[in-house]
């Protein structure tokens, strides 16, 4: 059978920026083998497959694939899929859509911002802060000096279905110099650290933004993400845990994607609520292509 698909740019302020996503709609979903082949053919950082028929709990079943494997959680696929569902399946105005991932149900909401543009938000699942890392092996794997890493907060793994190691850097120059070398990172992989590294600095390209970030991950070699929603959620938990900012209720603008020529803007709200971290990640989603898989 054929499937409809849509390509959208997530966390994009204009077309052909942000993080591209392919969303495939169909019931039943293709086999796992076929979904993996389609994701490899699309060759985006992620491709999603979603059923247009809600399950008993009202959520829509969502599968997320990179070109090489399935993921339990990823941010920009959640936002892009929700908007495609709202615009092309539900065909009506709604304030919330629920997506059923492998391990959790994620609510997605739609908000009209002051500038008249719509921001799509997801509420992140519970974040787990894990192992701490020494500075030197990470700096070596990134091709930078240990002095380029900001040490007032630790290098730490954060996870929620997937996991990444959060690395604070001192400035934009250090951020620009980074490139993950998997061979040099192999000893950390052997010690159980994930092949995903999220880097951030308080120096930014634009003064109205709060942080600039990069995200490297392994998928048939090293790839760089233009905009990373789950990474922003990991970062929100990290910033709250280590009181990186004096405020306990954070509202941040995060820029990403400059090194891969796809400037992106991610919005992050993070706060402690009744003893628990409450983290929302949002951004604009722009439609680019509609088509049919044969």
Short description:
By secondary structure, the protein is of the alpha+beta class. It has helices at 32-42, 75-90, 135-142, 172-177, 182-190, 229-241; strands at residues 3-10, 19-25, 47-50, 60-65, 70-71, 96-100, 105-112, 118-123, 128-133, 155-160, 162-168, 196-201, 211-218, 222-224, 249-256, 264-273, 276-283, 285-293.
Structural write-up:
The chain is an alpha+beta fold and 294 residues long. The chain folds into two domains: 3-124 and 284-293, Roll (Diaminopimelate Epimerase, Chain A, domain 1); 128-276, Diaminopimelate Epimerase, Chain A, domain 1 (Roll), CATH 3.10.310. Helices cover 21% and strands 40% of the residues. It is built from six helices and 18 strands. Helix 3 packs antiparallel against helix 5 (182-190). The model has no long low-confidence stretch (mean pLDDT 95).
Layout of SSEs?
Layout: E1 3-10, E2 19-25, H1 32-42, E3 47-50, E4 60-65, E5 70-71, H2 75-90, E6 96-100, E7 105-112, E8 118-123, E9 128-133, H3 135-142, E10 155-160, E11 162-168, H4 172-177, H5 182-190, E12 196-201, E13 211-218, E14 222-224, H6 229-241, E15 249-256, E16 264-273, E17 276-283, E18 285-293
Parallel strand pairs: 2-3, 4-6, 11-12, 13-15
Antiparallel strand pairs: 1-2, 1-18, 3-4, 4-5, 6-7, 7-8, 8-17, 9-10, 10-11, 12-13, 13-14, 15-16, 16-17
Helix pairs in contact: 3-5
Rounded mean pLDDT score: 95
Residue share in β-strands: 35-45%
Class based on secondary structure composition and strand pairing: alpha+beta
Taking the alpha carbons of the first and last residues, their distance comes to 7 Å
CATH superfamily annotation of the largest domain: Diaminopimelate Epimerase, Chain A, domain 1
Number of helices: 6
CATH class of the largest domain: Alpha Beta
Shape: globular
* Total count of strands: 18
Overall tally of structural domains: 2
SSE run: EEHEEEHEEEEHEEHHEEEHEEEE
Unreliable spans are none
Please compute the radius of gyration using only Cα atoms. Answer: 18 Å
Q: What can be said about the biggest beta sheet?
A: 18 strands, mixed
């Amino acid at each position: 059978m054929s499937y409809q698909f849509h390509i959208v740019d997530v966390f994009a302020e204009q077309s052909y920026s942000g993080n591209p996503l392919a969303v495939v709609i169909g019931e039943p979903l293709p086999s796992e083998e076929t979904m993996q082949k389609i994701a490899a053919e699309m060759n985006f950082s992620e491709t999603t497959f979603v059923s247009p028929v809600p399950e008993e709990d009202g959520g829509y079943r969502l599968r997320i694939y990179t070109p090489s494997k399935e993921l339990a959680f990823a941010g920009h696929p959640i936002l892009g899929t929700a908007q495609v569902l709202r615009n092309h399946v539900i065909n009506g105005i709604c304030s919330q859509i629920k997506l059923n991932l492998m391990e959790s149900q994620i609510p997605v909401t739609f908000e009209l911002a002051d500038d008249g543009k719509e921001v799509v938000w997801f509420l992140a699942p519970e974040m787990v802060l894990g192992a701490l890392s020494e500075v030197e092996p990470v700096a070596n794997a990134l091709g930078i000096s240990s002095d380029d890493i900001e040490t007032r907060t630790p290098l730490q793994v954060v996870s929620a279905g997937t996991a990444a190691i959060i690395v604070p850097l001192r400035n934009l120059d250090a951020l620009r110099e980074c490139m993950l070398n998997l061979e040099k990172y192999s000893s950390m992989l052997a010690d159980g650290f994930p092949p995903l590294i999220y880097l951030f600095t308080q120096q930014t390209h634009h003064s109205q933004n709060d942080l600039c970030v990069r995200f490297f991950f392994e998928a048939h070699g090293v790839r760089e993400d233009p905009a990373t929603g789950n990474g922003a959620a990991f970062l929100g938990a990290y910033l709250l845990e280590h009181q990186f900012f004096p405020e306990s209720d954070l509202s941040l603008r995060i820029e990403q994607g400059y090194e891969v020529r796809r400037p992106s803007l991610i919005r992050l709200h993070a706060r402690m609520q009744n003893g628990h971290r409450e983290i929302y990640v949002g951004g604009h989603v722009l439609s680019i292509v509609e088509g049919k898989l044969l």
